[in-house]
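QA checklist item 7 of 12: single-chain prediction sanity check.
[x] sequence parsed
[x] length recorded as 204
[x] structure emitted
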Amino acid sequence: MPYIYGKRIRLRAAEKEDIPTFLHWFNDPEVTENLMMTTPMARVEEERWYDCMMQKPATEHVMVIEISDGQQKPSYRAIGTCGFISIDWRNRSSEVGISIGEKSLWDQGYGTETMSLLIEHGFNTLNLHRIWLQVHSTNPRGIRAYEKAGFIHEGKFRQAEFKKGAYCDVHVMSILADERRQSEIKGKPIEKGLGQNGNTPHAA
């Protein structure tokens, strides 16, 4: 898969060499607080996950979010993962997930830029009609950010997730291709401030 470039980031295919970095991120409870991960992951589990992922179509492979050092011949540093989950080609619909694993880079707009690239790639390259996501009710910053990115509330799964001894609702949000096009025609900017994490396609 070719690289997907934004102003400050690029998206690339995940490689087996990324597994130690993934283990570092996704064994951190702060990183996984708003993700649907509940237990620590061992390297063998992560390797098994990677091998299973490689059996899926390339369009559903996890992508690594990288930032540039800004040089003329830049080098890149991995900061998170993103991707489309279980694309429904007949209905041209897919869930999307994103996670910024490098906590020092939270709240700097990298999640916003990543989501914008995913939406553009989904609608303009994969020819999707609907892109949707799930976000916990305990993540209000993420909910507000997805709203700013153009996602509309569709409903919620009541008390669907059990975290830290309590149940929380899981909100379902989506954006349609026509809504994205109308937003571009009006010149509405995608605002900064995407929450730390939404549900990620990466899981053991």
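[x] summary fact logged: The chain has five helices and eight strands.
[ ] second reviewer sign-off
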